[in-house]
Amino acid sequence: MIPIIRKQNMPSGAIFSLLLALTIHQTLTADVPPTVVAVETSSPPASPVTPGPPEQGSYNVTNATDAVCLLARMGLQLNISFISSSHGKTVQEVLNLHPNLVKSSGSCDLDSATLVLSEDNINLTFSFSLNTTSNKYHLGGLELSAALPDMAKGLVFRNTTLNYMVGTLGHSYMCQKEKILSITQDFSLNTFQLQVQPFVVNGDFGAAEECDLDEDDMLIPIIVGAALAVLVLIVILAYLIGRNRSHAGYQTI
User: Fold this and answer.
1) Fold of 57-214
2) How far is 242 from 111, CA to CA, in rounded Å?
3) Where do the record's region annotations for Disordered lie (predicted)?
């Protein structure tokens, strides 16, 4: 007799327990993405906005007899580096002087002249010197005292060994283009449409002596004009030579 083996059915409760265990195991062994922690960062302070070209102002200085001894016409822009009281580090500030707010003063001697421009808590002093032997003058000194709102304390920038704005006695010095005058490590002065004449002023500016920047601008059209003139001359010469050769080819019968 062949024995009969009966298949025993697994209880439904056991099946449910097995499925639950498998599900829990897969959940625990699944890859868990790393948690990303957002780090709060403070944005750096915005860079100072550079203003456009400054407005041109006209200034003069009179001597003891109330005669004008110094004339100046220029736009001025200050570029200053200082420690900011609000940021606690060195910042750079670019400021325009406003002619309608500026008060001018100064003095003149035989071989020296000063122009002082004041606006709010800013005082800018130009010191010109004259070499009576060569009859040449120059800007030898510049001083800026400033007490801006964000400065921890007022600052003074000074240089008395400059050699800017060199001109001949009785003539004016002119520089229409922007020119950067380096004064100290933390201060430079940008000039725009500048014309100045210290000493021997006869009512108005004398003949202008232009700066290198302006002369370079004039040199380019001169070179181009000279090149065109040479080209035209070559064409004319070539035409005349060709015409003479063609006439030489004919003979009288």
Assistant:
1) Porin (2.40.160)
2) 66
3) 39-58
